[in-house]
């Protein structure tokens, strides 16, 4: 007897055939097909659940094969499929089981079906694999209103599954669930509460509109963390497809996430490389993947180990991270906006107008070089912040909602231009230049400043991307000279050539 289920390799789903055969021999249940510990223990759960159902399986030898045999099975998600296969072999289930039905879920000892980590990506994979119907346990964290295209039948017990397969009971399916409305975002942060930092606010608006990476350098207490924590309030809500990706990643990691707001991850600088990138014996998503479609904020960025920061090269460049272990190799998406914050020197007061810096030039250079040149190259905007004088009369302050509306308009212009949901920060450069070419004069200007500041080709590309986003915020169809000047200004911080030399010419 063959019953279908779904296995996961990272975010990728594949078809698993659960084959059950009764053989002569000592009464036992044997599971083959590279099962891990959680799958091997399934035989005890399945035996107990079937006993509660009224089916005694300990009279003959049962062999359960999980195909394909070359892939390691790492989840208790196959319990329900094993139980259905055994019931069919034992004659407790007379009706044929079509191959277009998949069974997902873990069994309790009393026959209750429970959800497990990875249920959502498995259900999403079912449609791609050609399954027409999926039996799965009900999970209130599922975004049901985004899964209307999947015919998913929710079950609570093994008895309900059997009755449904026999046509005796019609259970509620995905199509019978009400369409939920995502609640409005609630946050106590708002840009209208931040006094000063007009240039930094505009830079963050550009970063939000084009998904550009930002590094903020300033003395302690100047507002770096406050700006970073307020930044998500100007990001657009996630689209349906993006929300499903994010929720799938959070399910695989076993963390809660049940709204459409972009994720904001804030790991401590003592976090290990495995916590940041992902991994483990059974590779799970790390902070870079949990920040997918959102923000990864690295406060005190220079305090992270250099080895850990250099691991960000691949996800910043490709938008994904590949984790290779002896047991398996998986790839997780990691398409995020990097926000970094650091002091200008170990004591924090280099360049300050009110405090004296006690650090030697050698100490300052060593501190800056904790962030390698390739990481600097992958950052679009360098911001130099100063302490704000709160006694001055503040200018007119804009709310996050006002800024977010401009960001959404700029994003919509980009989606229309490229014909897909992609921003200037991540669109292939050949597509960007084909849609928005630079004039000959603009190319000469960029080359001149690139030679002056030793900018690499990657930095020049990022300046073009920034200029295109600035033009989008201004509602202009082509890259203007003003937009290019502003983009180059974002790459030069106020300390000028002295700053550049300390960063090793970045």
From TrEMBL:
Cited InterPro entries: AAA+_ATPase, CHLI-like, MCM_dom, Mg_chelat-rel, Mg_chelat-rel_C, Mg_chelatse_chII-like_cat_dom, P-loop_NTPase, Ribosomal_Su5_D2-typ_SF
One GO MF term on file is: DNA binding
Statement: the UniProt record of this protein carries the keyword Magnesium: no
Q: Which residues form the AAA+ ATPase domain?
A: 210-389
What's the domain of life for this entry?
Bacteria
Q: Does the keyword ATP-binding apply?
A: yes
User: What keywords is this UniProt entry annotated with?
Assistant: ATP-binding, Nucleotide-binding
State the family named in the UniProt similarity comment for this chain: Belongs to the Mg-chelatase subunits D/I family. ComM subfamily.
Which NCBIfam families does this chain map to? YifB family Mg chelatase-like AAA ATPase
* Name listed for the protein in its UniProt record: Magnesium chelatase family protein
Tell me the organism.
Anoxybacteroides voinovskiense
């Amino acid at each position: 007897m063959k019953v279908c289920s779904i296995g996961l390799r990272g975010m990728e789903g594949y078809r698993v055939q659960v084959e059950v055969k009764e053989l002569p021999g000592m009464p036992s249940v044997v599971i083959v097909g590279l099962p891990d510990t959680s799958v091997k223990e399934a035989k005890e759960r399945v035996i107990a659940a079937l006993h509660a159902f009224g089916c005694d399986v300990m009279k003959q030898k049962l062999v359960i094969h999980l195909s394909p045999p070359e892939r390691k099975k790492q989840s208790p998600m196959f319990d329900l499929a094993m139980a259905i296969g055994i019931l069919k072999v034992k004659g407790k289930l007379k009706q044929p089981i079509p191959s277009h039905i998949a069974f997902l879920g873990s069994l309790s000892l009393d026959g209750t079906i429970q959800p497990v980590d990875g249920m959502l990506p498995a259900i999403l994979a079912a449609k791609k694999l050609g399954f027409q119907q999926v039996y799965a346990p009900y999970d209130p964290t599922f975004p049901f209103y985004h899964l209307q295209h999947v015919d998913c039948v929710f079950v609570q017990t093994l008895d309900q599954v059997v009755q449904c397969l026999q046509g005796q009971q019609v259970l509620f399916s995905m199509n019978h669930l009400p369409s939920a409305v995502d609640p409005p975002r609630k946050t106590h942060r708002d840009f209208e509460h931040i006094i000063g930092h007009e240039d930094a606010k505009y830079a963050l608006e550009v970063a939000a509109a084009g998904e550009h990476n930002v590094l903020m350098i300033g003395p302690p207490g100047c507002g770096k963390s406050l700006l970073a924590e307020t930044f998500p309030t100007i990001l657009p809500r996630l689209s349906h497809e993006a929300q499903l990706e994010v929720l799938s990643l959070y399910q695989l990691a076993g963390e809660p996430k049940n709204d459409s707001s972009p994720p904001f991850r804030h790991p401590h600088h003592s976090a290990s490389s495995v916590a940041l990138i992902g991994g483990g014996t059974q590779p799970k998503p790390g902070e870079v993947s949990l920040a997918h479609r959102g923000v990864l904020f690295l406060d005190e960025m220079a305090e992270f180990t250099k080895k850990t920061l250099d691991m960000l090269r691949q996800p910043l460049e490709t938008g994904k991270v590949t984790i290779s272990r002896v047991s398996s190799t998986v790839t997780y998406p990691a398409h995020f906006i990097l926000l970094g914050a650091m002091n200008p020197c170990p004591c924090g007061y280099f360049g300050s107008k009110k405090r004296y810096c006690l650090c030697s030039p050698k100490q300052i250079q060593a501190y800056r070089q904790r962030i390698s040149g390739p990481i600097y190259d992958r950052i679009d905007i360098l911001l130099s912040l100063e302490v704000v004088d709160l006694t001055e009369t503040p200018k007119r302050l804009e709310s996050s909602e006002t800024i977010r509306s401009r960001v959404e308009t700029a994003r919509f212009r980009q989606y229309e231009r490229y014909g897909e949901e992609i921003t200037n920060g991540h669109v292939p450069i050949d597509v960007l230049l084909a849609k928005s070419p630079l004039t000959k004069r603009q190319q000469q200007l960029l080359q001149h400043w690139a030679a002056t500041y030793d900018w690499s080709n990657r930095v020049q590309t990022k300046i073009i991307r920034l200029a295109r986003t600035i033009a989008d915020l201004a509602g202009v169809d082509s890259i203007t000279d003003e937009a290019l000047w502003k983009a180059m200004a974002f790459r030069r911080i106020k300390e000028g050539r002295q700053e550049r030399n300390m960063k090793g010419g970045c």
